[in-house]
Design a protein that fits this description.
With about 110 residues, the chain is mostly helical. The chain has 7 helices and no strands. The chain has 2 domains: about 70 residues, 434 Repressor (Amino-terminal Domain), CATH 1.10.260.40; about 35 residues. The model has no long low-confidence stretch (mean pLDDT about 90).
Length: about 110
């Protein structure tokens, strides 16, 4: 892995940590790594493992594609919303989506 890529990944992790308003210590705890190792990742000196990338996704809501490539995910991840919606509320949620979809259609359709 190139040093530029490690640096960019470290910056994206730092950016997300700052958005969450948490310290390096708190981020390290979320990823179950030492504070020193976390700091090295942020500075681009160490590689983050696949396991930790997945933890960053779960614990910090840091999209793996964005973390690795810098390509931002869509603002609204509809699939994720549906999957996280409690089963007893999915029908109502699906109806809301259908209603919103109909609002977005032009009158010519």
């Amino acid at each position: 892995m190139s040093s530029k890529l490690l640096f960019d990944i470290g910056n994206r992790i730092k950016e997300r940590r700052l958005e969450l308003g948490i310290t390096q210590r708190q981020a390290a705890d979320l990823l179950d790594i030492s504070l020193n190792f976390y700091g090295e990742i942020e500075r681009g000196n160490k590689r983050i493992s696949l396991e930790k990338i997945l933890l960053a996704y779960e614990k910090m809501d840091l999209d793996p594609t964005y973390l690795l490539t810098g390509v931002k995910p869509p603002l609204l991840n509809l699939n994720r919303l549906i999957l996280e919606c409690p089963k007893e509320k999915r029908f109502d949620f699906e109806q809301l989506i259908k209603y919103a979809s109909n609002l977005c259609k032009s009158n010519d359709e």
